[in-house]
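Researcher: Here's a chain I'd like modeled. Treat it as a single chain, no partners, no ligands.
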Amino acid sequence: MRSTEAVRQILRERDATAQAGFNSESIPDGTMADEPILSMDGEPHRLQRSKIARYFAPKTVAARYRGLMESRADALVAEMVAAGRARLDDVSLRYSTEVAAKVIGLTDSRIDRMARHLERLFDQPSFDPASSEPEGRIASIVRQLRGSVPMLWFYLWDVRPAIRERRKAPQEDVISRLLKEGYGIPAILIECVTYGAAGMATTRELISMATLHLLRDDALRARYVQADEPERYAILHEILRLEPIVGHL
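Model: Modeled as a single isolated chain. Structure tokens:
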């Protein structure tokens, strides 16, 4: 179904739909004492989302992270100019990972290694538990291993060190808040994956797509370079409308 009105109606029926994504629909209810936002629905989901949303609010990002965002962008551009070449997907992954990691609290491990952990974690085949297609025993084991191994590395190398440091010295970030609310390790891990996807994978895609549009269209690039901030935002919003990060509901 490709009707805009049908999609709008589904999105507005928030209490008649259930969360999905990252195979969250296949996690049985009550598996974890602290339910992560990925598997929440209805009012609990809205309440938890409102608590975390302030860390990603535009005013908060501008006040706390604008300096980091600008300095890292300048540094990466300088690297590309010095090298004379670069892979756009690699550069955008490094940039988005470093900025989002600061907001989430994943700052106690190597950014480049964490970026690769997340990339492998997100590169998983989708699984529909309601599918009528039979899945062989070996295929099932392989699918589970492919999903669990990257998750294990992400926890051991990135999430666990951050949790350990924030137990000793809480900061103004997502992990510190989850610890304050008594969340256990499994729930915090899933929350880090969720916000990792929201803050890293999607940002990387937007940066890559916007850059491709600007490189291919000389007139658009000239307009963007000369524009003030509101007009630049308008251009980026139009690119995002034409090339939505989530293109399938």
